[in-house]
Amino acid sequence: MTAETITLGLFLIGLGLCIISGTEVLYALIFGMACFFFYSLKKGFTVRATCSMFLEGMSRVTNILIIFVFIGSLTAVWRICGTIPFILYHAMGLIEPRYFVLCTFLLCSMMSFLTGTSFGTVSTMGVICMLISNTAGLNPLLTGGAVLSGIFFGDRCSPMSSSAQLVCSLTGTDIYTNIKNMMRSGLIPFLLCVVLYIVLAGGAGADPDLSMVSLFEENFSLHWAAAIPALLILVLALFRVDVKYAMAASILSASVIAFALQGTTPPVLLVTLLRGYRAETGTELARLLNGGGITSMVSAGFLVLISSSYSGVFSRTPILSGIKGALGRVSGLLTPFGTVTAASILSCAVSCNQTLGTILTFQICEDLYEKKEELALALEDTAILLAALVPWGIAGAVPVAAIGAPLSCLFYAFYLYLITVWNLLAAVWKARRHRRTERV
What we know:
Blueprint: H1 3-21, H2 25-42, H3 47-59, H4 62-80, H5 83-92, H6 100-115, H7 118-136, H8 140-157, H9 162-171, H10 175-201, H11 210-219, H12 228-238, H13 243-260, H14 266-275, H15 284-289, H16 298-316, H17 321-351, H18 354-365, H19 372-381, H20 383-386, H21 394-403, H22 414-439
Helix pairs in contact: 1-2, 2-16, 3-16, 4-9, 4-13, 4-14, 5-11, 6-7, 6-8, 6-10, 7-8, 7-21, 8-10, 9-18, 9-19, 10-19, 10-22, 12-13, 16-18, 17-18, 17-22
């Protein structure tokens, strides 16, 4: 048995034990770091060289760690200044009862694109839509699937999405170029989702419970100015302003609005930026709005930091050579996109989280594409979305638990797999057409 097999096997056992016992995956990642450290020493590298490999991997995600701080601050200040309550309050008025499931998908898509977070969207808009659905006696599988599809729309292609920023950091690509490519590759699957949610709902509708969102009217000033922080993000994104500056501008404007509209004091705002928005414990408002803050991103930051440290070892040692070789031998049959799809399914299944699954897929498939933008798009169309379909993974299990839907609602989360299926079919068709052209 080779050192590579033993090392990867121990890492997978550690992950498996964490899954079975319900222990935080972070511990398995730290154990993996130790495994790869000793593997590097076994291969003849010094302690200093091995540490240098880990630091090299970590250095690739410095930018995303900074963005994590901005995301945590943004999600908190948007709550306290009234931006998220404003969006939720007015979005509920847009619901057409006959097309409730479709409205759920579209509203969650809009919210996730504005905030860039699947977990933040599911805990606000997703929870509200699911409560309305349950009250009306609608199919929880269909509504739950629509929520999951919507929350990962923005998680995939929002300029504020941490996963989108991770792909940019790994591939060295521009976020706005990636978003343009993602919009193109995801258009047909998105329209298919719209059709499926209309057809499968069969005209069954639900009237929104406006008494629930009236909580926002009672606790916040819902003046139009509360929408400015969200509008700033959209406008600056159109002008391709660096996302860090766009977020900083939005946070600054939201802070001013919190002082002027909501009567927030500076000490309260600072605590909110750090620890997140906190309404009175036990209230309905706390259940719907609590969250955000820099501390909410600490766990994700450690996951990214430790996971990324592996990349230095993966790139300097032959630990993944066996897997790369096997996939390389079948890449001609599967097409490069098919190979990325296979690698992402394997990586997400064993890693149980979106971040490590994406990094592993990148490490295995980074040589398949000549253009780094094509690799970035392939990662966004596979690993970022397929991670949420792993029943024992964090990306899908947490949102499903948050809305109280059956786990089988993942089958109705069409957006999560239609993008992969559509682009896989397109890749196979292009490959066959290319082969026919070569024969002629």
